[in-house]
Amino acid sequence: MIPETAMFGIPQWLWTIAVIIVKIAIVLGGVMLHVAYATYFERKVIGRMQNRLGPMVVGPYGILQPIADGIKSFFKEDIIPTNADKPIFFMAPILGLMAALSSLAVVPFFNGFVVANINIGLLFLFAMSSLAVYGVILGGWSSNSKYSFLGALRASAQVISYEVPLGLSLVGVMLMAGSLNITDIVNAQSRYPGGMYITAQWLGFFVFVVSAIAETNRSPFDLPEAETELIAGFFTEYSGMRFALFFMAEYTGMIIMCSIAVLCFLGGWTLPPFVLKLMPFLGAVPGVVWFAMKLYVCIFFYYWIRATLPRYRYDQLMSIGWKVLIPLALVNIVITSLIKMLVHPTGTP
Amino acid sequence: MINQAFFFYFSAVIVATSLLAITRKNVMHGVLYMLLLFFHIAGLYLFLNAEFISAVQVIVYAGAIMVLFLFVIMLLNLRDDIRKKQFIATWPMGLLVSSGILMVILMAMLTIKTGAHGVWGIAQLERVTQTVAIGTVMYTQYLFPFEVASLVLLVAIIGAIVLAKKRIK
Amino acid sequence: MPGTYTPVGYLPVLIFLIIALGFGLGSLLFGYILRPRRPYDEKLSTYESGMVPEGEPRQKFSVQYYIIAILFVVFDVEAVFLYPWAVSFDKIGLYAFIEMILFIVVLVIGYIYAWRKDAFLWD
């Protein structure tokens, strides 16, 4: 199976590993750049929506602001509270970041470019997003502070509550695509007449978007870090680079949720067939451009919601998750399977 | 060769972390060792060509059941517990019971005979993927156990609420 | 035969996990080299809006959180049952559909019970 030597006398397996590492470096580099500029984009967008300018000082139009922020976080003093549980305090941000970053392994950015093309891609994403809760709970618990503890408690209950509708909302997509491999899901979408599953799965898409916002602790569901009540929630005691790691994990999580939305509901890197029929020259544009454009629209949507809606109360947040989204997701599953039954009554063996 | 190496790595870490998980006085540290343990069990499943089970191991055990554990632990007052010499006064009893279980397992291991090969070989699973294989078998051949599982889950919901909500309006 | 299958497709995932860990540790180490260290007691004390921290930080909390956690475990398992069903739906057809409706109905009974007993109500 493995040839002894390949190019330049270097064994084949070493080449395979080198290719994987280069791919990971590209993905990590690209995503980290996007994480940095997502913060800039957010401040600019929300600034404009509130009739302000946003960052303007560092570089022209403040374009170097994220880089300045990054450098600053390295030079900030690291404060560990005296009563903190040090090993856990140390581990929590790393665990959170690891869970967020390794989700990127199964995200295909365009046709054929994915670090790990595994059969259970979606399940891997669910597994990693269910681990993200550990960064929150452990960080809040180990800080030994009242604000952190309450923030962690709220955040973990919120995250686990919304994980159920998040998983259920994608069952409709799995039914339509018949696969858990994300590349297969995108290819199945391009064969589907609408070109995007959002046309048939609009209910699933709605449930997914709401639970994705809650899952990443973003406004209007940013209860865990409600500044007016809890200072900064579970990372109140974190400073400097450790704080930056939590911050990176949050924004990476946001990018991953947007990528799932793009890949599972909006057609990924493909264009709907009717658009290509109308404007065939668009087919020449590389797929990664469409992927990025759809992703930016989703991220903009996140900021738009943040600038528009006020924060929910905690009891409202929990009842939206359990009393509205879960029934809607179950209804969506039953309807989708019913339609599928009527279209293929005997099944296609 | 590489499979054996991975197997020994996974099993060594599983044994070590499970020992650490039950001997740490700080329960939170014990939970973290258990988290590591679940990951390595998931790794073992991968080498058994059971990727779906491996993902479920992480989603259900690490992502759901351990979170439940953490909620329980957060209520405990850890500071007093850490000062205590030992938690469980009845540990000789536990040792007796678990060595009995170990004996049973050893006896079973020595007498076990592997049956005939099923239809799901490596090549077959590679072709249809394990998730589809589980789906087709579970929802045709093992229909009844699956429906019983739903009743078990129902009992779990009702039991949790009855226990937690003693004061019903 | 057990021990004859190597999950080659998961090698990138393993490498990614290692690199992600290295990324986290590396940036912390880099910060450790660069940043100043001037600790004193007041700076290291727990933040409580400028007051001296008072009482236990980890207090008792509502039993509601346990109910949510247990319900989450149950619904998570339910979702796990749904994934292979959804993926193999083409191959099993009508039977699978009826079965799953039955499964969902049983769980909806539990769900309605939980709702009626105010398990989702926060006070």
UniProtKB/TrEMBL annotation, chain A:
Pfam families reported in the protein's UniProt record = NADHdh
Transmembrane region(s): 12-40, 88-110, 122-142, 162-182, 194-214, 243-269, 281-304, 324-343
Does the entry feature the keyword Cell membrane, yes or no? Answer: yes
Q: Name one GO molecular function term.
A: oxidoreductase activity
Name the UniProt key words of this record, in alphabetical order. Cell membrane, Membrane, NAD, Oxidoreductase, Quinone, Translocase, Transmembrane, Transmembrane helix, Ubiquinone
Catalysed reaction, written as an equation? a quinone + NADH + 5 H(+)(in) = a quinol + NAD(+) + 4 H(+)(out)
UniProt membrane topology term: Multi-pass membrane protein
Places the protein is found? Cell membrane; Membrane
Under Enzyme Commission nomenclature, its number is 7.1.1.-
Query: What's this protein's family per the entry?
Result: Belongs to the complex I subunit 1 family.
Query: Which function does this protein serve?
Result: NDH-1 shuttles electrons from NADH, via FMN and iron-sulfur (Fe-S) centers, to quinones in the respiratory chain. The immediate electron acceptor for the enzyme in this species is believed to be ubiquinone. Couples the redox reaction to proton translocation (for every two electrons transferred, four hydrogen ions are translocated across the cytoplasmic membrane), and thus conserves the redox energy in a proton gradient. This subunit may bind ubiquinone.
| Subunit architecture | NDH-1 is composed of 14 different subunits. Subunits NuoA, H, J, K, L, M, N constitute the membrane sector of the complex.
What is the protein name given in its UniProt record?
NADH-quinone oxidoreductase subunit H
Report which gene this protein is encoded by.
nuoH
From TrEMBL, chain B:
Q: Which GO terms describe its molecular function?
A: oxidoreductase activity
Which UniProt keyword terms apply here?
Cell membrane, Membrane, NAD, Oxidoreductase, Quinone, Transmembrane, Transmembrane helix
Which compartments is it annotated to reside in? Cell membrane
Q: Which domain of life is it from?
A: Bacteria
Its Enzyme Commission number(s) read 7.1.1.-
Q: Which Gene3D superfamilies match?
A: NADH-ubiquinone/plastoquinone oxidoreductase chain 6, subunit NuoJ
Topology in the lipid bilayer: Multi-pass membrane protein
Q: Does the keyword Mitochondrion apply?
A: no
Q: What class of enzyme is it?
A: translocase
Which positions, given as ranges, span the membrane? 6-23, 30-48, 54-76, 88-112, 142-164
Q: Does this entry carry the keyword rRNA-binding?
A: no
Catalytically driven reaction(s): a quinone + NADH + 5 H(+)(in) = a quinol + NAD(+) + 4 H(+)(out)
Note the Pfam families from the entry: Oxidored_q3
Question: What is its biological role?
Answer: NDH-1 shuttles electrons from NADH, via FMN and iron-sulfur (Fe-S) centers, to quinones in the respiratory chain. Couples the redox reaction to proton translocation (for every two electrons transferred, four hydrogen ions are translocated across the cytoplasmic membrane), and thus conserves the redox energy in a proton gradient.
Give the record's family classification: Belongs to the complex I subunit 6 family.
Entry's PANTHER family? Answer: NADH-UBIQUINONE OXIDOREDUCTASE CHAIN 6 (PTHR33269:SF17)
According to UniProt, the name of this protein is NADH-quinone oxidoreductase subunit J
TrEMBL record, chain C:
Q: Which domain of life is it from?
A: Bacteria
Enzyme class, broadest EC rank: translocase
Identify the Gene3D superfamilies for this entry.
NADH:ubiquinone/plastoquinone oxidoreductase, chain 3
Q: Where in the cell is it found?
A: Cell membrane; Membrane
- What's the EC number here? 7.1.1.-
Segments spanning the bilayer are 12-34, 65-86, 92-114
Signal peptide bounds = none
Q: In the record, what terms sit under GO molecular function?
A: oxidoreductase activity
Q: In this record, what's one Pfam family?
A: Oxidored_q4
Q: Using the UniProt record, give the first listed, main subcellular location.
A: membrane
Topology relative to the membrane: Multi-pass membrane protein
Q: How does it assemble?
A: NDH-1 is composed of 14 different subunits. Subunits NuoA, H, J, K, L, M, N constitute the membrane sector of the complex.
Q: What is this protein called?
A: NADH-quinone oxidoreductase subunit A
Write the lineage as a comma-separated list: Bacteria, Pseudomonadati, Nitrospirota, Nitrospiria, Nitrospirales
